[in-house]
From TrEMBL:
Record keywords: DNA-binding, Transcription, Transcription regulation
Signal sequence region: none
Organism: Pseudoxanthomonas suwonensis (strain 11-1)
Record bears the keyword Transcription regulation: yes
Gene Ontology BP annotations: DNA-templated transcription
GO terms assigned for molecular function: DNA-binding transcription factor activity; sequence-specific DNA binding
The organism's place on the tree of life at top rank: Bacteria
This protein's name: Transcriptional regulator, LysR family
PANTHER family hit by this protein: HTH-TYPE TRANSCRIPTIONAL REGULATOR, HTH-TYPE TRANSCRIPTIONAL REGULATOR TRPI
SUPFAM superfamilies: Periplasmic binding protein-like II (SSF53850), Winged helix' DNA-binding domain (SSF46785)
Amino acid sequence: MSRDLPPLNALRAFEATARLGSVAAAAAELHVTHGAVSRQVKLLEEALGTPLFVRRGRGLALTATGQRLGDAAAGAFEPLRKAWADLLAPDPTSALVLGCPGSLLARWMIPRMERLSADLPGLRLHLVASEASPDPGLNGLDAVLMIGNPPWPPGWQVHRLAPERIGPVLSPRHPAHARLEGAPAEVLLQEPLLHTSSRPTAWPEWARRNGLQPEALQLGTGFEHLYYLLEAAAAGLGVAIAPEELVADDLRAGRLAAPWGFVGTGGQWALCTLRGNSDARIPAFVGWLRTQLEG
């Protein structure tokens, strides 16, 4: 073994274990196995000829030698972490590249862009629409605004914004609007329902949460995207189903009505970034999104 420096992989495993007080926690942070961390620590102990840790209750404590090496390792790694984070930090004058589904972009994000500019004038967005599930590496995006369910990709930092709620909506222009609006939810079992291929589980999920049999639903015209589905509903072509937040503006304007209300799905509105993203604009954007969704 070189007398100049200890093996760096072993030192990194030791530093994480010393800082976190647990081999398991160090393994999780380094994305390796428990055994791999233990072997690296043992390598250092064998080279030094003395233990670096002792068992104390359910955890680990540093020996005198371990404390001395731990202080030196922390002094080396912390400046490196800070320098690396600073180097990775984006130019605050550049646009934040935000991905989101096209329907969410058209029906929720774009109508609020003027408000965003007034509330966060230093934040510029470059918006990217995609109907596909985001790549775990986010593939060139700084963040993704989406409605989703756990489990989330392990490399993501998920900022939960608001719980998702869905419900049936129809237009006052619908030929049977007056009859349907005052009827219980069961009446929809006799209606051909507008639906979307991008979320085929929406109607069955709503039916189950309202005590109805999903098998009894009658699906009518289908659409590829939610945006077209809701335009069809607004034109009076049938009853659609949608997240509450995406039709809130239409409900306020009287363009759509939601006679049966909305139910939670267990899903979440979320802003997702990669873990370790140090972009200082993200916390302010998260706060703004939460305020908009609460409103």
